[in-house]
Amino acid sequence: MPEKTAIAVVDDDDSVREALTGLLGSLGYRPVAFGSPAEFLNSDDRRGVACMIADMQMPKMTGLELYNRLVASGEAIPTILITAYPNQITRGHALQAGVLCYLTKPFCDKDLIACISAALDS
User: Fold this and answer.
1) What is the CATH number of the domain that holds 73?
2) What is the pLDDT of residues 71-96, one digit of tens each?
């Protein structure tokens, strides 16, 4: 049996993390959940993920800072940022840095699925 594609979910909000992991699992992916950027960075599981969904606003490190740190270390992972506090300037910086999607909460499943497809095709 082929191994399921691993997708990381990095979000400090338990309910959002659980909802996303449930959705990803129902779509046939293998969600790997992390409660903080530090937890993600300190995990060996990060090396096997094909895509990352990260909250923009988290304590100590934003989703964009996490993405930039991965890129700087040579571990760029196709990334989707999600936020409850949209900001067009930040969105522009994120997309210019190479983030594939910047979704505003609440977002619809089909938008997230389209972003995941784009990330996995990149």
Assistant:
1) 3.40.50.2300
2) 999 999 999 999 999 999 999 999 99
pLDDT the model gives residue 2: 55
Query: Which contacts qualify for 25-28: CB closer than 8 Å, 24 or more apart?
Result: 27/113, 27/116, 28/4
Is residue 97 one of the residues assigned to a domain?
A: yes
Please give the structure tokens belonging to residue 122: 């990149």
Q: Which amino acid is at 55?
A: D
Average per-residue pLDDT for the chain: 95
Joined together, the tokens standing for residue 102 give: 């910047």
Domain range for 94:
6-121
The domain tally of the chain equals 1
